[in-house]
Amino acid sequence: MRYAILSDIHGNLEAFRAVLADISRRRADMIWCLGDIVGYGPDPHACLDLLKRQRQLTVPGNHDLAAMNMIASSDFHPDADESNRWTKEQLVDSDMAFLGTLPPTAEKEGCTLVHASPRDPIWEYMRSAEVAAQNLASFQSQVCLVGHTHKPAVFRCIDNTCVEEKFPDDAPLDLGKTRFILNPGGVGQPRDGDPRASYAIFDGGSRSVQLFRVAYDIAATQAKMLKAKLPQALIARLSYGL
Ligand code: ZN
């Protein structure tokens, strides 16, 4: 089986659709979504509706939990808080019902799926090899898949130590039997300086993961955000992937 690993769609329908088109070209049997389907972007309802129609396994992110009033939006950056409050007004009962079905974490094919980190699935940013190593005792599977930072990342872990690497360019990363913590980057608001949508495909047969970047109509998303009067900084950052 092949699994498309997506995270941080963030209500960006143009980016999500472009990624789905790329996935159908490259073929995947199922989507694993690491959360933050909503927040920041102009199409939270349409993104939830499109995601739930896919063959998918999804865990929630901090923005999804804020939309469900399960964590306080006031704990977010002011621009995120403003977009969270706007997002809540756009969601309908079926969106809330779908969000309510999501398990906090999941484990399939030797991979643990969480939004932020295995020891703190809601808030912790997996930004360094030190933080990766501190999380090794908090998941049992060979691989842990995380999102939340919106930056692609590879942590190769042996015994109690992790080393940060990059995904290979245009080639799969062979996992072998080594433990890894992997981040596929962000679909709807990439933050690694490349504005294209980011996602990965895990091949369960060869046990390898490949990263892909997909161009999408950024201006169309920004025009919708402007119309919705979402914060200017959130509109501008899509152009730069920061
Ligand atoms: Zn996010």
Walk me through the topology.
Layout: E1 2-6, H1 13-26, E2 30-33, H2 44-52, E3 56-58, H3 62-67, H4 78-90, H5 93-100, E4 106-108, E5 111-113, H6 129-134, E6 143-145, E7 152-158, E8 161-165, E9 173-174, E10 179-184, E11 197-203, E12 208-214, H7 218-227, H8 232-240
Parallel strand pairs: 1-2, 2-3, 5-6, 6-10
Antiparallel strand pairs: 1-11, 4-5, 7-8, 7-10, 9-12, 11-12
The site of zinc ion has 7 residues, from loops.
What is the CA-based Rg, rounded?
17 Å
Distance, first to last CA: 33 Å
Helix content: 25-40%
Reported for the largest beta sheet, the result is: 6 strands, mixed
Q: Which descriptor suits the 3D outline?
A: globular
Characterise this structure.
The protein has 242 residues and is α/β, with parallel strands linked by helices. Helices cover 31% and strands 23% of the residues. The chain is built from eight helices and twelve strands. The strands form two sheets. It has a six-stranded mixed sheet with strand order 3-2-1-11-12-9. A six-stranded mixed sheet has the order 4-5-6-10-7-8. Helix 2 (44-52) links the parallel strand 2 (30-33) and strand 3 (56-58). Helix 7 (218-227) runs antiparallel to helix 8 (232-240). It starts with a strand and ends with a helix. Zinc ion is lined by residues 8, 10, 36, 61, 63, 148, 150.
Fill in the keyword field for this structure.
alpha/beta; 6-stranded mixed β-sheet; binds zinc ion; 242 residues; single chain; globular; 8 helices
